[in-house]
Write a structure and sequence with these properties.
4-stranded mixed sheet
Length: 124
């Protein structure tokens, strides 16, 4: 995961993302427009957010972008802003028992982390 994150970060140029760096052409910055498919910016941001959450690192607050134009990015913003449940458990929990805004990880203690607070998880 760290190798992938470092490679993805190599496409960041300050606050912008680079779509293409070619020796024989000018640098092309990436668009964040997510309709009808996720943009490369949103995919990069989602990947880095998932790496941070899975590695137990802190995420940075992200402002939301325009609805219907940056919906995939806005899911990433929700994850960064603590609006996704991070379920830590010894074994996989059936997705039918979880809310749609959930990310599962393996750990020795069963917890549900949401909005910056982790609580022991009750078996259902």
């Amino acid at each position: 995961m760290t190798t992938m994150a470092a490679y993805v970060e190599s496409f960041r140029d300050g606050e912008k993302w680079v779509e293409s760096r070619a020796a024989d052409f000018q640098q092309v910055f990436a668009s964040w427009f997510d309709h009808p498919v996720p943009s490369s910016v949103s995919l990069a941001e989602m990947g880095l957010t998932r790496v941070a959450l899975l590695a137990g690192k802190e995420t940075q607050f992200k402002s939301y972008r325009a609805p219907y134009q940056a919906d995939f990015f806005n899911i990433t913003a929700m994850m960064n802003n603590g609006l996704f449940h991070v379920i830590n458990s010894k074994s996989a929990v059936a997705w039918s028992q979880l809310s749609p805004n959930t990310l599962q990880t393996r750990a020795e203690t069963d917890t549900d982390c949401y909005r910056g607070t982790c609580r022991l998880r009750q078996a259902r």
